[in-house]
Amino acid sequence: MKCIVVGGGVIGTSAAWHLARDGHAVTLLERDRLGSGTTWHSAGNISWKPLPDDDQSVLYAYETIPRVEAESGQQTGWLRTGRTYIARTDETLHKFEHFDAEARARGIAARWLKHDEARALNPLIEPSAARGIWLCSLSGRLAPADLTAAYAAAARRTGAKIVENASILRLIRAGDRVTGVQTSDGVLEADRVVLAAGLWSRTLAASAGVALPQWPAQHFYTIVDAGMTLPRETPSFVSPDDLCYGREEVGHFLFGCFDEDALTVEPEDLPEPFVFTLFPPLWDKFAPYAERAADLFPILRTAGIRKFINGPETFTPDGRPLIGALPGVEGLIAASAFNSVGITWSAMAGALVSDIVAERQSRFPAERYLPGRFGERAADADFLRAGTSWIVSGNYRVMGAREA
Q1: Alpha carbons 130 and 84: distance in angstroms, whole number
Q2: 10 Å Cβ neighbour count for 355?
Q3: Which of 228, 244, 221 has the alpha carbon at shortest distance from 303?
Q4: What does the pLDDT look like over 55-108, one tens digit per residue?
Q5: Which runs of E-coded beta strand occur in 175-296?
Q6: How many Cβ atoms sit within 10 Å of the Cβ of residue 105?
Q7: What 3-state DSSP class applies to 10?
Q8: pTM of the model
Q9: Containing H/E element for 292?
Q10: CA distances to 46, 234, 290 from 83, in Å
Q11: Using CA atoms, how far apart are residues 139 and 236, in angstroms rounded to an integer?
């Protein structure tokens, strides 16, 4: 089957590799360079949790990383560090107790840390500020650009064609099906079109008469001068009560936030070309999170900020991605709106797209990600903006420990 994948970030390259492995004729089209939209500024964390979207998908990611490295000859920078889950309230402590019980039932190495253990693992932490700190071994991080390059190289070796600097003008629709794409160089025909263009996916879907229920928002993290060189193996952390997460970054301290009342982005207002581009720092937005977390990490009261990374991420009102056939247009498949969890979900997304094209049962809960689940509200921009502004931190507040 002839497949076109639109978008060369971590999701599109994963889809291209999985489709090529299934024997399809695959062409991936990227408007600029691979990973130049959202992927490049991702924090790159992957952590297991016993939640519907972070269980089988993460376990599959751990299967996929060595496989794609072997097939591509490209290292991803994968480093297994473990992650500390910090509870500052009884409610969050109870959630993490459930995580611990699930991990133990499955034989996953995990334990509650005593204060001296927590300090030994991360010298920046003040554990007395927490109700409890749970360490799970099934966590690590990698380099998003390197993972994207590995997917792309493996896809090429399996027969996929990857075209960068390919300007996609619109999707081509004939009746109730998509038949290809219009590029600046002409028309490319396809049996299936996979829309994996991130914050540009909604505009492209609209060219085929489909409303894609996603909206972008500003999402930020910082690189803090830790005053010491943190070991690379320092476990990452998440503190959902503080709406923050972080890890070691080249010896420094990466500290990020999932912002309440996040600022949404109007895609049509973005300058062109918007590649490898960031927004200005949001110091007023950042300050309350640093102040809130300073009891846990006192360094935040005095340390200098080396870098402020504020880029666009695309969200859905329920915090789940859009993966699946778009209603009303045969042959058009979405793989978009990954809610700042694209690195974690990239392997699952590529496999699920390939399962959908092959019309086979998937190991993943495909019904959770159906793009049509919002019905007519998919066309309601005000609903999408409001839902996006809330969900950026909403997953932390409702479920605890949404992945960074």
Answers
A1: 11
A2: 18
A3: 228
A4: 999 999 999 999 999 999 999 999 999 999 999 999 999 999 999 999 999 999
A5: 177-183, 186-189, 192-195, 215-224, 236-239, 244-249, 252-257
A6: 9
A7: helix
A8: 0.96
A9: helix 283-293
A10: 9, 9, 20
A11: 8
